[in-house]
Amino acid sequence: MKQLVKIALIIALIFSAASIATPQAQAATTTTLNAIKQGQYTVPIQFLTDGTSKSSVMNTYVNPTAKLVVKNGKQYVQITLKNSDWITGLKVNTNGKLTKPKTISTNKKKKEKVVQFEAKDITTKLNAWVKVDAAKYNYHHKYNVQIKFDSKNVKNKSGKKVTIKKPKTTKR
């Protein structure tokens, strides 16, 4: 009898260990947008030094007000880069991966460039990477930064503030 109890305990132990070691299938998730209507808006932005709440020098190279474009169920942010010939590399975290933004326009006289990237949630900081090359000053550096959106001050085309809600993540 003791032999059967031992065998039963060993079998139970094996099955319980197997269920712990077997990864459960994760439920797929869907993240909604910030619950604003299709259209164009302005949003104040600030570049932060990596992992801090301190303002980055990168702020001197960008217009502090970005354009938020909501179109076909997606949100895009357009940032104007100043001294754009010095910004030789820029990547923004889009869908969990650092990707190069799309260039929307370039003004060589003003040394400005407008770039666009998708941003599912403007209530949180977005990781980015930038490379600055100012040969005239022998300045060549790469930085990890975060982009902080002032989601409490988003305005529509007529200048009226718009309420931004944190996206909801649901399991499917």
UniProtKB/TrEMBL annotation:
Topology of this chain in the membrane: Peptidoglycan-anchor
Keyword Secreted: yes
Pfam families cross-referenced by the UniProt entry: NEAT
Stretches that traverse the bilayer: none
CDD domains: NEAT (cd06920)
Domain (NEAT) ranges: 36-157
Signal sequence annotation: 1-27
Superkingdom of origin: Bacteria
Keyword terms, alphabetized: Cell wall, Peptidoglycan-anchor, Secreted, Signal
Localisation: Secreted, Cell wall
Protein name from the UniProt record: NEAT domain-containing protein
